[in-house]
Amino acid sequence: MMSLAARSGPFSPYMQATAFAVAGPLKALVPGIVLKGEKILLNPKEKLLCRETLNGQSPKTGPAVMVSINGCAGVRFAHTDVRIPDFSDYRRAEVIDPNRSSQESGESRRVFSYLVTGASTVIEIKLSDIPEGKNMTFKWRGKPLFVRHRTEKEVATEAAVNIAELRDPQYDKDRVINPSWVIVLGVCTHLGCVPIANAGDYGGYYCPCHGSHYDASGRIRKGPAPLNLEVPYYEFPDDDTVVVG
Predict the structure, then answer these.
(1) Which range marks the domain in which residue 20 is found?
(2) Which of 79, 149, 190, 210 is catalytic?
(3) Is 79 one of the annotated active-site residues of the chain?
(4) In the record, what terms sit under GO molecular function (predicted)?
C-alpha cells in the first residue's frame, strides 16, 4: 500500500486527495478514491496507473493531487485564456515574417548594431546649457559623466593647491584643457559609488557612501578613495561644444 502526506496550507480548500492501492500477489487491484466534497470530479472506475491515463480526467475546478505508479504528483491546468503579448511594434520589419530566414536580414542588422555601438562611444554636449558654478551629469558608456563649469574663484583655488599634500598628486592644469571646464567620470575610486556634485569639505564632489571628498578638480582630498576621479578623453571642436570619447 502506498501513501502520501503533505501540508496543503492555504491551498487546502482547493485541493482533492486521491489514493490508489497497488496490486499484490494475494490481492487484486481495487482502485479507491477519497474526495473532499459531495461532487466526484474524477471517475473512480478509471485506473489512473500512468501519466497518460490522467488525460481528460482532471477536475474542472481546483487542482488535483494524486499518487500512482509512474504518475505525476500533481496536476496543473493549461491556461488557454492567457493572451500572448504582441511585440510587433518593437521588432524590426525584416524579422517580423516567421517564414523568412533571418540570414537574409543579417547584414543590415549587423550594420545597424555597429552604428549604434559607434554612436554610443561619443557624446556631444552643448556648454552654453551649463551655468557658471554648476555641474551637470550625463550618461556616457553606461557611467555618469560630470561636466562642471567652474568660476574664476574655483579655478584660482585649484591652481594654488600644493600637490605635495595630495594623495594622488596632479596639477589642476594637467586635468583640464580649458580651466573653466572640468570633465570627469562620476565614479568614486573607492568602491564605484556616484559622488554628489558641489558638496564636501572642498566644494567639489562628495561620496556619502564612505566619506570621500574631492575638490573642484576631481582630486581626492579626504576619505578612503585612493585615486582622483578619472578624466576621459575629450576635445572642444568649438567654444560652445565638447565631444567626449
Answers:
(1) 12-87
(2) 210
(3) no
(4) 2 iron, 2 sulfur cluster binding; metal ion binding; quinol-cytochrome-c reductase activity
